[in-house]
Design goal:
The protein has 498 residues and is of the alpha/beta class. The protein is built from 15 helices and 14 strands. A hairpin with a 2-residue loop joins strand 2 and strand 3. The protein is globular, with a radius of gyration of 26 Å.
Length: 498
Amino acid sequence: MSGHGHHPDEDAIVTVFGGGIQQVDTDRLRWIAARVDRAFQRAMEALVAAKSARRLAKSHHHVVNSRPVVQALDAVLGNLELYVPAVARLATGLGQAIAQYETAEHTLEWYLQNQWMAQATWRVDAGQVAHHGAELADVVKGDFGRPMGADGGYATTMTSLPPVAWAIGSMLSPFGVVTTGRGLGSRHTLPPVPFLTAALLNVTRLDQFQGNFELFLRSRSGTMANIAHYRDGSLRSGASIVGEGEGIPAIQSFSDLVDYSETLSAESKETGVGVFSAVRTENADGTASWVMVLPGMQGGLGHHNPQDNATNLQLMAHVDNDLLTGVREALLSLPIAPGEEISLVGHSQGGIIAMVLAADPQLARMFNFRHVITVGSPVGQVGELPARTKVVNLVNADDVVPGLSGLAPHTGPEQLSVIVDFDGPTKRYAHPHDWNSYEISMIAARSESGEVADLMDDFEYQWRSEGAEQAEYVFHLERTDGRDTWQEFVADWGYWVN
């Protein structure tokens, strides 16, 4: 469903899913789409015929006075040239709406309730797998200049990845049984992408990989205080943080938060370690709230920075990993008073971490998770969060990354899945997965949807108290021998890794 704010963005279609699985009659929509497509084909035929008639009339001007005929045909052509693209956009817009409604229904809960039907859909022949693989290759190439309504990267990935994952996972695990972070699973009990990633982790032994790591609290002066360390399978936590964090320029909006997160990513690239932060806002009356800021993946596989591809695979298969453990320890070390509200904000991989933390029953009993905001994050595999936690999962229609789980996020009355589709080739951003592109998409979502605007206003309210002061707690997370540890694991199986 879509809502409208006071200043709608006419260049964006914003679709908001909330309140559980949507019951949309997509068969009826397909019937309408087929007739719109037929109208488009007939309009194209009329356009071609009118152009041919005009050429014929002009070529016989010496026989009869064809000027009135040519003028009449010019008028017809002018109308058809306006009508045909409009019908084409309507047809592709209906197709995109159908794809978005159908993929939004394919949540983890839906899969668990409809396993056999889902498996029959994804168990396709080699020719169909090749077709779906080709579609994935096209969206990965990044044709971001598509017309609005043409299948974007998100809908295409959600549709095409599950059958490809099913096929590849079955090859990696011929017996159909895998080990996940939640015990044994099979291709009959796991959705295709979690099954594939679990099979891949089992084969590469990355499911056993946790490099020794150190978690530090970084001060502005550059000194590091050790908060926790992981050694030889044993986690040792340090003392809780005592005292105030370091003051920062005021964060007063989601856009400010995007800029702040980008500084953390820059620090991560400069230092080569994982960097994330907690921002505490203290009001004049002494009450306080917190926002944990979790940037996205920084690249690599098994290196010093655990914000890497190994962590992505482990998160998809529900396997404990260095980054999740480190962020959890950081959260537990913070001087959060009972009842203080905590918001978790993450981009891409950081959004998965945010959702997993908020869904953890033990942490949910300890902390008051007020909001979770994810942008460009594949989080459908996480499942349901406590009803009291307000959620926005924001997706750019052109972004393939949030579709990589092959599952749509769980939704509820105040747990929203929001898809933003811009009109035609957009020059608003360089790449649909960038933080800055999601800043633009959030502005469009808030202007088009009252539900999104209300929830984000509630999120930003914590920063609007007069006299409030903010302080940051910046954490560095570093694998001390990650690459060597992984090589030892795979060497036991006779693999050689460079």
